[in-house]
Specification:
Oligomer: heterodimer
Order of helices and strands of chain A: HHHHHHHHHHHH
Radius of gyration of chain B: 24 Å
Structural class of chain B: alpha/beta
Strand content of chain B: 25-35%
Number of strands of chain A: 0
Radius of gyration of chain A: 21 Å
Distance between the termini of chain A: 26 Å
Largest sheet of chain A: none
Structural class of chain A: mainly alpha
Helix content of chain A: over 70%
Order of helices and strands of chain B: EEEHEEHEHHHEHEHEEEEHEEHEH
Number of strands of chain B: 15
Strand content of chain A: under 5%
Largest interface: A-B, 24 and 30 residues
Largest sheet of chain B: 7 strands, mixed
């Protein structure tokens, strides 16, 4: 086993946030799902609602709120990962050992991602409630989970890049959060503003979103392929309809993640700013 | 063992090393001194493979530090100027992790860790948290970590900084012990008395280049077996003029300075030459109180090299 993974996991689980964050995470997630349940059942009346409808609502609420929460947590685990070694002056010890830059990166990446995945796993009991109501199949659960994992892996890689590029954890964390906001919020705002302008210019023509996603010009759609919530929405499509929306988003996220890995390794090999 | 030839390294246009040259033989305990910003830490980082050099060559045991980094890492133990520790680990866990990082597995890992604990005197604190250790103990722990993989060369950058006098004495003893085990040690320090006590030679560095003393030496021999020219300080009772005459008429000797009751003589040759001069002075009736070989201290030599170069 990579010594870095063992060290990182040991240190991470000793931190107070090792148990505090999963607890808070589950409390917030449970509250959101409970709220969604009561909202759905009270709107239509308990007798007139189908169990499968409740199941779908709970599942979608869980999937989106889980992604939002995890996007907020990823920078905490990844962005301080390498800067902490610089701050406590242990990075030179790692770099002059026989550990390779790749091993160091992999250890940091696995430990930060594993903790986020632990949170994902702890939400399974909440997810099972959605199953109990019906309306949600294994495919939806699988594709939503896979999509969430791809997004989190990409964001962890970006967090690690920021961690390798900055000297202090606070700066690396701030820039990672800015990236999260940029891809989650700015891309959506950009899309809706441009969409509104486009609709105004083509009033009277059947080109609105109701006419279909693919009828919107590509240059307007492009920012949304960077949006994690759009990526998650695309994962709810049946398997034969995953192309091009889901596949495109997946490629974009994987490419960004890979670029972040290459740049992080370059920074670790450069070693000039110890 | 360590061969550095015309090494240069710049940071954003500022030359930290500018054609520095250094040769350290196997088994030597070699000092490196120079003012702040002289390039000592940069040199240590280049030798420890942390920084790539711009120009020149640097080899350790014939291995190029820029190109054969992995092989060089196996050979060296590097102690940075401000070494860090993982506060949330126990002493044993800290050493086990680094033994693992040097690919020591299973029995080799346990043996190396136990030996490091014994060597650092921390065996009875192996389960204690690193956070609980004093500064001196942490420094011992980091040095023990540096020795885990049995390096042939130690690169120590200011290892005594912040240590109390007792810890400094222990460190000096430990370094002497390591040298006697055949380990080559390159040590940079501002504590000249420590270096004087343990080093065989000392290289002078200033402005990234080899600095030289008045005689043009860039490396000071601290334990030279026989210095051909030696300075003797002579204290006597009464007028020093007769003694000055005897010294100046003596073959291989001359008076460097004289005052009432004191003179400084320069004698060329072996110890016998000094003994003969002393005998001549006594026979001539000069009342000698003290006849002492005066070695120029490192601090004095350092001051002579760097004082006039200070901005």
């Amino acid at each position: 086993m990579n010594p870095m993974i063992r060290k990182e996991l040991r240190q991470r689980m000793r931190e107070r946030r090792g148990w505090l964050l999963p607890s808070l995470y589950l409390i917030v997630l449970g509250a959101v799902v409970t709220f969604a349940y009561f909202l759905t059942t009270s709107e239509r009346g308990a007798s007139g609602i189908q169990g499968s409808t409740v199941g779908v609502v709970l599942f979608l609420t869980l999937a989106y709120s889980q992604l939002a929460l995890l996007l907020l947590l990823v920078p905490i685990f990844s962005a301080g990962s390498i800067t902490i070694e610089k701050e406590q002056r242990t990075l030179s010890g790692l770099l002059t050992s026989l550990l390779t830059s790749r091993q160091i990166w992999w250890g940091k990446f696995v430990s930060s991602l594993l903790f986020v995945l632990l949170l994902l796993v702890t939400s399974l009991p909440v997810l099972s409630m959605a199953f109990a109501f019906g309306g949600v199949g294994p495919w939806e659960v699988f594709s939503a989970t896979l999509t969430t994992v791809i997004i989190l892996a990409c964001m962890s890689a970006i967090g690690l890049y920021c961690s390798s590029a900055f000297q202090r954890s606070v700066h690396a964390t701030a820039v990672t959060y800015a990236t999260v906001v940029a891809i989650s919020v700015v891309t959506a705002i950009l899309f809706f503003v441009r969409m509104a302008m486009y609709e105004t210019g083509h009033r009277g023509q059947a080109v609105a979103t109701g006419g279909g996603w693919y009828q919107i010009p590509l240059d307007i759609r492009v920012p949304m392929y960077l949006n994690p919530f759009f990526f998650l929405t695309a994962s709810f499509a049946p398997i034969e309809q995953l192309y091009p929306a889901w596949i495109t988003s997946a490629c974009v996220f994987i490419a960004i993640g890979a670029l972040a890995v290459v740049l992080t390794l370059r920074n670790l090999r450069r070693r000039g700013d110890l | 063992m360590i061969d550095v030839e015309r090494l240069s390294k710049s940071f954003n246009g500022t030359r930290a090393l500018d054609g520095f040259t250094l040769h350290v033989g196997a088994g030597e305990l070699f000092g490196l001194v120079g003012p702040n910003g002289a390039g000592k830490t940069t040199l240590m980082k280049v030798l420890s493979t942390l920084l790539p050099m711009d120009n020149g060559t640097a080899e350790i045991d014939g291995l190029n530090v820029n190109l054969q980094t992995r092989a060089v890492k196996r050979l060296i133990g590097y102690l940075p100027d401000q070494p860090g520790v993982y506060q949330d680990m126990s002493v044993r866990e800290f050493l086990e992790f680094f033994a693992d990082a040097f690919q020591l597995r299973g029995t080799r890992n346990r043996t190396a860790v136990d030996r490091a604990l014994k060597r650092s005197g921390l065996a009875d604190r192996s389960e204690a948290s690193v956070e609980q250790l004093s500064f001196g103990m942490k420094q011992r722990l980091v040095l023990a970590k540096t020795l885990l993989h049995d390096p042939k060369v130690l690169l120590l950058d200011e290892p005594a900084t912040g240590l109390d006098p007792l810890a400094r004495i222990e460190l000096r003893e430990q370094l002497k012990q390591l040298q006697s085990e055949g380990i080559t040690i390159l040590i940079s320090s501002h504590i000249l008395s420590d270096l004087e006590d343990i080093c065989t030679q000392i290289a002078l560095i200033g402005g990234g280049r080899n600095a030289t003393d008045a005689e043009g030496h860039s490396v000071l021999q601290l334990r030279a077996p026989q210095d051909p020219v030696r300075i003797y300080e002579i204290e006597l009772i009464g007028d020093s003029a007769p003694a000055v005459n005897i010294v100046n008429s003596f073959t291989g000797a001359r008076t460097v300075e004289s005052s009432a009751g004191r003179l400084v003589a320069e004698i060329t040759g072996a110890d016998e030459q000094a003994a003969a001069l002393l005998r001549a002075l006594v026979v001539a009736g000069v009342n000698i109180l003290r006849f002492d070989h005066r070695a120029l201290g490192l601090e004095e030599r350092y001051r002579m090299v760097f004082r006039e170069k200070r901005p």
